[in-house]
Amino acid sequence: MEWIDVQLLAVAALVTAGISIVSILTGLGIGLLVCMASLSRNPPLRWAARLYISFFRGSPLLVQLLLIYYLLPAIGINVPSLVAAIAGLSLSTGAYQAENLRGGFTSVATGMIEAARMVGLSWRQILLRIRLPIALRLTLPAVMNEAVMILKASSLVSVVGIEELTRSAQNLATSNFEPIAMYSMAGAFYLLLNRLLSGGGWMAGRLLGRAGA
Amino acid sequence: MRFDVGLMLSWIPAALSGLWVTVGVWLTGGIGALLLGLAVAIIRRFGGRILDRGLWACVAVIRDTPFLIQLFLLYYGGPFVGLDLDPYAAGLLGIILYGGAYICEIIGAGFDAVPRGHQEAALCIGLTRLQMVRRILLPEMTLLVLPPVVNMQIILLKETAVLSIVTVPELTMTLTSLGSEHFAFAEALSLLALGYWGLVELASLLGRLAERGFSRYRLAT
After folding, report:
1. Number of independent structural domains in chain A
2. Does A88 reside within a domain?
3. Which residue of A152, A155, A184 is in closest CB contact with B73?
């Protein structure tokens, strides 16, 4: 293994980090929307959310990525493959985050919401200042666990031709005939990224802890 | 976009052969992962400090790296260290190692959750250590870990789709190659997603039945 290989893999690791962070954040947004829908009083909205969660948790991510990659152009939507990949990751993780957040939202004490309403907070203020921070703090371990899963799952977007860490390792392994060194190095980069992500989660926990106090 | 349902239906026999490979890899891999996870959890608990630390590191590495990278290491890297695996064997070994790492953590947590008093009581009334493990620790732990283990088995079922990348002729590989032969990806991928969805719903139903069957052994703690 040459120094240049390590550099190439490090650049590819940045691509993986970028894809993962965008997908994790978009997925959290989707998860929040789907979670609100699944807790709403409107039955069709609730059923739609349940169907969404059931489908995206019930089929392999690889299949979902292929579906989005091949079906979007077939129905006339032409997006770059990077966008399709991020959309696939976000839609999938959104279903898991919705389930995670739902647990948090249902365990926010009703007394707190009533108190917030009594002091005259609007529905949106209650959501953004009371329910969301508490729900996020309660479910942070599960939410971070899913973030790690998405970072690992981002390796699958190599299949639709995105030049990220796994794909680069694959290219290097075939060109210089050192699969063990290349894939181990790629694995080490994933480990490092996961450690950084967990560190970020720990900091987010501290921030949320202060916000909720 | 045309959507040819007739074509989709005509693929069902071919899809079934892929489905059997998927189910076969999943069942053998899932059982293998369960046995490996149990063995590793027991060794980590009773095998001394050095083994515990070493296995902890292995588990951490497997849990923090993508399954696809592990699969590539086994399949493409294996021959360089004399481990010549065909796609099926590499895939199966990959599933067993990946699942085993997660299940070992689940079972470890299960051991921790069995009340200490129960184990001490068993030793007090004269059971040997082995009897205590076999008759008290393992049965109580089984009840506790059943739901997360079922969940993990369902994750492994979905993870078998990744084996198509190293050309294991399972459901995903069968249907995507049919799709590219007929240039009908929409039909192939829809059938694929529906197939997995049905399989996962069926597996979680079986899991719930198993949990209900076991729950009558539950004791007050």
Report:
1. 1
2. yes
3. A184
- Identify the weakest region by mean pLDDT among A6-20, A56-70, B4-18, B25-39: B4-18
pLDDT tens readout for residues B102-131: 999 999 999 888 888 988 999 999 999 888
In angstroms, the separation between the Cα of residue A19 and the nearest Cα of chain B is 15
CATH of the domain at A57: 1.10.3720.10
Domain architecture of chain B: domains with CATH: 5-212 (1.10.3720.10)
Q: ipTM of this model?
A: 0.88
Average pLDDT over residues A137-163: 91
| In-domain check, residue A71 | yes
Domain range spanning residue A43? 17-162
**pLDDT tens per residue across span B164-220:** 999 898 899 999 998 888 888 888 888 899 999 999 999 999 988 888 887 776 665
**CA-to-CA distance for B136 and B124, rounded, in angstroms?**
13
Residue A213 binned pLDDT confidence (cut-offs 50, 70, 90)? very low
Distance between B81 CA and the closest CA of chain A, angstroms:
9
Q: Which of A91, A157, A183 to mutate to test the interface with B (most CBs of B within 10 A)?
A: A183
CA distance B131 to chain A (A): 36
State the DSSP string of chain B: ----HHHHHHTHHHHHHHHHHHHHHHHHHHHHHHHHHHHHHHHHHHS-HHHHHHHHHHHHHHHHS-HHHHHHIIIIIGGGGT----HHHHHHHHHHHHHHHHHHHHHHHHHHHS-HHHHHHHHHTT--HHHHIIIIIHHHHHHHHHHHHHHHHHHHHHHGGGGGGGT--SHHHHHHHHHHHHT-HHHHHHHHHHHHHHHHHHHHHHHHHHHHHHHTT----
